[in-house]
Write a sequence for this structure.
């Protein structure tokens, strides 16, 4: 019985080693965020390039067209409407396993959208207050923690939670940037 | 144990995804100060039981705004608001230090122009008159018993010596808050009168 157990353990370890080796040889990954798509009508795509020493780099691109956020913006509950983000990032794997691991991420952000303000306009001796919508862009940075697992050597499920701050144009842009997602990916 | 970790991460992800990343507030909203007394009342100090205390408004849609040139169009700014609302309170002295709000039924209010509801304060609405392009309000409050009374306008406002009128309009349009001075109030924002 003991021999069978030991044999099974060795077999499992061998299989894991084979799987880890197969994943390590694949250096590129594309992902799509299903959480943002479902909850926020946001298209969020990511690319990640795996480097040596547990590091990886990548970029995340978002485009948002949320009906609820647009309504909130029109009804005056917010004065900005984030539309797009380009988030380059660097990650470090916190676990030894290549198939299931936690990671830490720092990211930069170039983001933009619409900004609304109330202005006074004079015309022929009378004046009115009216809303003026303009575009904003800003730069930000932040950090995340996440967990990633692979299935069949190539398919990835990734959970990500983090946030950051804009710092160049916060009179118009949102103060905070959230970076949260449940991503499905393919590594090759 | 691992499953718990996964569930925890998913829950945190959902919680964060529901965070409002935009700055909260209400932004279809602006406040102005005008120099004109938009709301008035007759400063009679002695009334008789059965009399009415009338609060009035009859102001043009075009108003001079403090610190600005050109008359502000209150009607166009608000996407053609048909009403401006304000509030006031009538209290009766109970003893040396205490006052209580006077409650009457809405049907007892003498509504001549505009509309009003009475609860812990009178909620008055000036109505737009498109003929002469003014907002109008004229409502009498019945004085039903003898005693010392006081009138104030600071219930829904940050200021005690001015009245705040707020436009009632579509939320997609600008809501305009107007601070207008009031006459005959003391330093604490009260007008005192007696009912004999």
């Amino acid at each position: 019985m003991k021999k069978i157990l030991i044999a099974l353990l060795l077999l499992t370890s061998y299989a894991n080693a084979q799987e880890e080796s197969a994943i390590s040889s694949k250096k590129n990954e594309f992902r799509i965020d299903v959480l943002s798509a479902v909850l926020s009508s946001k298209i969020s795509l990511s690319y990640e390039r795996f480097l040596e020493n547990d590091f990886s780099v990548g970029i995340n691109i978002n485009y948002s067209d949320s009906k609820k956020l647009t309504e909130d913006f029109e009804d005056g509950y917010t004065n900005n409407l984030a539309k797009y983000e380009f988030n380059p990032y660097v990650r470090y794997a916190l676990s030894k396993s290549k198939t299931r691991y936690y990671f830490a991420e720092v990211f930069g952000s170039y983001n933009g959208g619409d900004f609304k303000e109330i202005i006074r306009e004079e015309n022929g001796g009378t004046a009115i207050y009216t809303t003026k919508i303009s575009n904003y862009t800003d730069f930000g940075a932040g950090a995340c923690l996440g967990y990633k697992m692979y299935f069949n050597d190539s398919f990835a499920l990734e959970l990500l939670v983090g946030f950051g701050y804009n710092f160049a144009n916060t009179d118009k842009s949102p103060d905070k940037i959230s970076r949260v997602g449940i991503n499905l990916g393919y590594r090759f | 144990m691992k499953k718990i970790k996964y569930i925890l991460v998913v829950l945190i992800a959902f919680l964060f995804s529901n965070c409002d990343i935009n700055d909260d507030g209400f932004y279809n909203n602006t406040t102005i100060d005008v120099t004109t007394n938009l709301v008035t009342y007759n400063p009679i100090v002695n009334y008789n039981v059965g009399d009415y205390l009338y609060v009035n408004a009859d102001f043009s849609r075009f108003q001079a705004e403090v610190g600005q040139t050109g008359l502000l169009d209150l009607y166009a700014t608000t996407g053609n608001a048909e009403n401006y609302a304000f509030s006031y309170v009538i209290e009766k002295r109970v003893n040396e230090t205490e006052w209580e709000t006077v409650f009457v039924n809405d049907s007892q209010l003498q509504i001549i122009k505009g509309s009003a509801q009475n609860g812990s304060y009178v909620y008055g609405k000036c109505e737009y008159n498109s003929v002469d392009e003014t907002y109008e309000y004229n409502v009498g409050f019945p004085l039903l018993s003898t005693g010392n009374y006081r009138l104030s306008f600071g219930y829904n406002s940050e200021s005690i010596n001015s009245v705040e009128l707020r436009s009632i309009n579509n939320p997609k349009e600008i809501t305009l808050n107007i601070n207008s001075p009031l006459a005959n109030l003391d330093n604490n924002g009260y007008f005192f009168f007696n009912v004999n």
Notes: The interface with chain A takes residues 5-6, 9-10, 12-14, 16-30, 62, 65, 68-73, 76-77, 171-172, 174-176 of chain B (CB under 8 Å). Residues 25-195 of chain B form one domain. Chain B has one domain: 25-195. The first strand of chain B starts at residue 29 and ends at 33.
